[in-house]
Amino acid sequence: MSPLVTPSNVQRSDRHQNRARMLISCPDRPGIVAAVSQFLSKHGANIVQSDQYTMDPEGGLFFIRLEFDLPELEQQLASLKRDFAETTAREFAMEWRVTQASRKQRLAVFVSKEDHCLLELLWQWKSGDLYADIAMVVSNHPDMRDTVESFGIPYHHVPVTPETKKEAEAKQLELVRDVDTVVLARYMQIISPTFIAQFPNRIINIHHSFLPAFVGGKPYAQAYDRGVKIIGATAHYVTEELDGGPIIEQDVQRVSHRDNVEALKRIGRHIERIVLARAVAWHAEDRILTHQNKTVVFN
Amino acid sequence: MSPLVTPSNVQRSDRHQNRARMLISCPDRPGIVAAVSQFLSKHGANIVQSDQYTMDPEGGLFFIRLEFDLPELEQQLASLKRDFAETTAREFAMEWRVTQASRKQRLAVFVSKEDHCLLELLWQWKSGDLYADIAMVVSNHPDMRDTVESFGIPYHHVPVTPETKKEAEAKQLELVRDVDTVVLARYMQIISPTFIAQFPNRIINIHHSFLPAFVGGKPYAQAYDRGVKIIGATAHYVTEELDGGPIIEQDVQRVSHRDNVEALKRIGRHIERIVLARAVAWHAEDRILTHQNKTVVFN
Amino acid sequence: MSPLVTPSNVQRSDRHQNRARMLISCPDRPGIVAAVSQFLSKHGANIVQSDQYTMDPEGGLFFIRLEFDLPELEQQLASLKRDFAETTAREFAMEWRVTQASRKQRLAVFVSKEDHCLLELLWQWKSGDLYADIAMVVSNHPDMRDTVESFGIPYHHVPVTPETKKEAEAKQLELVRDVDTVVLARYMQIISPTFIAQFPNRIINIHHSFLPAFVGGKPYAQAYDRGVKIIGATAHYVTEELDGGPIIEQDVQRVSHRDNVEALKRIGRHIERIVLARAVAWHAEDRILTHQNKTVVFN
Amino acid sequence: MSPLVTPSNVQRSDRHQNRARMLISCPDRPGIVAAVSQFLSKHGANIVQSDQYTMDPEGGLFFIRLEFDLPELEQQLASLKRDFAETTAREFAMEWRVTQASRKQRLAVFVSKEDHCLLELLWQWKSGDLYADIAMVVSNHPDMRDTVESFGIPYHHVPVTPETKKEAEAKQLELVRDVDTVVLARYMQIISPTFIAQFPNRIINIHHSFLPAFVGGKPYAQAYDRGVKIIGATAHYVTEELDGGPIIEQDVQRVSHRDNVEALKRIGRHIERIVLARAVAWHAEDRILTHQNKTVVFN
């Protein structure tokens, strides 16, 4: 079926052809910023954005995210990366990566029955607010097929039962083998350690509570029982600890005794979809560094 | 030392001489509102404010808070209460109470070394925003004496050590025997079950986290380790379960990786004092009903 | 084209067959609550929710919204209304209305080119969160036809030019003659006094600023120029004064110097759609009373 | 009278002896970051924090705030500044300044009758949260003398009447001649253009509304009349246009129809004092650059 929608072609200045992003982490010591900016300057690059953070100023870790423009980036990038690896990166024992801003990450979105988070991503993608390539939607249910295909996006129904868990996962891993990031948009199946190992800090989940409160199942019912006056949602990278991975973003909304569990779910949906969309956008813009089960988000 | 400050005499309309507050809870059934308003009407009272809430509409509990004006309230109140007890309250198996709005609750504020919550209460009391009588401040340290006495409020230094816990508590209970409500304004000692039993739902504590996350000690350090993007504070009634009692009020503030533990404490202080002050004010205005470890706040 | 989506059939308890809503405003005086609840009680109705508000307690206006259950409401309602009109309403000089909670309001949504507010309404309608009947979408552009029709909702393209304004309006008024409420979901044409007169307090507009700041055109550019640190959106009833009608709901989001006008629009879209959706839902649930260019929202 | 309180000696790492802050603005062009970091590196300085912002990436203005450590800063600073002026600053046509982080700004706080903003500043100063020197409090009323002097801070009562405006201002200017920044903490007198000219972008005012809404007098009454659902406060630099200067910080709080003007004032006070305190702290930490009646806050 021909798509009802096509992504908009927003040409924002921070995504143009010669824009690159560099993320670095290394042991803190004097001279890092000077060394990096000198390196880039020598290679004809102009730094247009820079955010840094030092964890524990008395000798801890240093993180920096730079955006720079380099004429003919496409052709120059490989040699720039080679030079950097052999000089500055080695000298400062850096972990680092450089990506082209114009390159869209390929995302696979996993969904079960609740569609609000998926819809938010689809519409943000369509409007150009989410600068990424939604390569596919994978679901253990068939319900969302028509909607997803109306966006011109492939839909894969992969049923999961306790007996077929392993085969289902194998099928999923095959589907996402060329994907950069997996987004669990209220996908209710547990992701296995095998799967997680293939996508370290590249699986983003939305948990429908304000972590670390109410981990696990039925968080809105848990919130209702505790009588909290504020509920929230949390987007995080998936690790082997259920709902325990590095938190990327959270947001909240006030509630009162008048809100029963159904109302909490209804209010919570709006928070969930906004929080997940922010997290996915920041991840797609290479704004997140992870360290010791926490994130540094340069936004 | 003569006080530097005296409480302001704000005569707000909802605290005048003939204003009363009635709180009722009973099993839900048809006719409650009609019965109560007819009763009050027959006794010459005019209902000026009414808030109700039915927990579980299919046969659950009914809660209502009314404010009414009754000419010559002072003289009429006793007989009105007697009549209500013998008629409507009995008929509907009500738990209820009626208080005079002009009557100020007597509060005892307990504090340790952190003074921000106490100061907020003192200044709100002085400005008339907190309509209550701060009868005394009790502390296990001597630090706040001068400040508290400059407000014209008695200060009692009751040191507490592991060996003297029992005697200290006995002294405290003696001091607060005529007090309506105890406010723990970052008071760091554990309140014993004996003490709690004397003040059921009448001890308000401020816990410096967004419950149920980070119960117990050093919640800001816990929050820092978890890498949350939002911190908060919670005011609750004290029960035997540490930080587990009914939540009265919560609020939050956004933080980022830039905020170390000291910064979290600094940001958190503002939330703590505002949240505690709100909770104490609502309690002083008889706006809170408690049921099944949760509160219904009519505000 | 057969719809991709059908509205869910959420049977929430506050919308069942025997539930009615009553809104009253009248000069404040003793006995109103008693009179109304006695009346309802005599007619066999059970009050399940009650919210009141007195503007200016020293002799001002009294407002109350009640929800009550009446067995066989459908058959009883007409006579109950007749009796109320002749007795209590007359005695207290009340303005009042009673509606059946199960009856869905018929809405017409007007849209121009920005689709986010419309989409939010469509998805909330589909999920059952918005309990109303979206009878049609009217637009001065053809762009949204496919999307709207995929929801099974009629789409009317009514172009508007300076020369054809009058005919266009005549056509619109004809289309909406059986509609309860008109929702302007980022509809960019000015509504004429004639149109407004047909729908007093029944046209809800979303203005993309935090009123009364930045009325009129290009509010995000205005906000950017003023260098505000917070932007917002406002839902209000349309009156003859542009962006001057009674405010129903507002919300805000923090921004910084990093956000240029395009970013402000992007951030603002999320606020606009949530604020409009809340306002429309409250209006559909008969939660809003208007007085002196302000709203009382019983929520 | 000996002070009841003395400021705490918090030695935060970002205020130690060898820490300096550099703020720069200049026309944007390639190489700025490299040039500045090379300069600092050559002079033995280590950049520990860097925030930049380019207004209008296609050839606009560039802003950067750096924090760097330089051994023996006290002795080295003068020559570093001289060198910078003659080389990099000249080359890039920079406007710039460098200050020592350990140096406290001298503040004069002006107050009228409302004391909440002043008290917030005094307590934040006392706790060490506000790293500045409150050199004096100036007021057109005598009311706050005892409180201010209890903090060990000089209090100057300078009455102002229409006839004595000029002399009063002359007296104030004489008092504040050695002061860095004037903070108007709900000071209700208009500041003259003469005064403003002496303190360009160095007078911080708190206006009790969410600008640009409700400029001028009685903003809470204005807000009440407009029926807004959210109120706020704004801290800004004072310019000749009343309430029109560059906005530094704003915050808001939700209100409802239940809140009359007195309630709005009460709720508003908490926002005012927090917003003013944040703005003053950022200013004291040299985090604010101003351009075209807007601020860039590096926080």
Automatic annotation (TrEMBL), chains A, B, C, D:
In the record, biological process GO terms are: 'de novo' IMP biosynthetic process; one-carbon metabolic process
Q: Ranges for the ACT domain?
A: 21-103
Enzyme active site: D243
Q: Which InterPro entries match?
A: ACT-like_dom_sf, ACT_dom, Formyl-FH4-Hydrolase_C, Formyl_transf_N, Formyl_transf_N_sf, PurU, PurU_ACT
- Which Pfam families does this UniProt record tie to the protein? ACT (PF01842), Formyl_trans_N (PF00551)
Catalytic activity, reaction form: (6R)-10-formyltetrahydrofolate + H2O = (6S)-5,6,7,8-tetrahydrofolate + formate + H(+)
| One example GO MF annotation | formyltetrahydrofolate deformylase activity
Signal sequence region: none
Q: What is its EC number?
A: 3.5.1.10
Any coiled-coil ranges, and where?
Answer: 63-90
- Which keywords does this Swiss-Prot/TrEMBL entry list? Coiled coil, Hydrolase, One-carbon metabolism, Purine biosynthesis
According to its UniProt record, in which pathway does this protein act?
Answer: Purine metabolism; IMP biosynthesis via de novo pathway; formate from 10-formyl-5,6,7,8-tetrahydrofolate: step 1/1
| Family affiliation | Belongs to the PurU family.
Which function does this protein serve? Catalyzes the hydrolysis of 10-formyltetrahydrofolate (formyl-FH4) to formate and tetrahydrofolate (FH4).
Protein's UniProt name: Formyltetrahydrofolate deformylase
- Gene name as annotated: purU
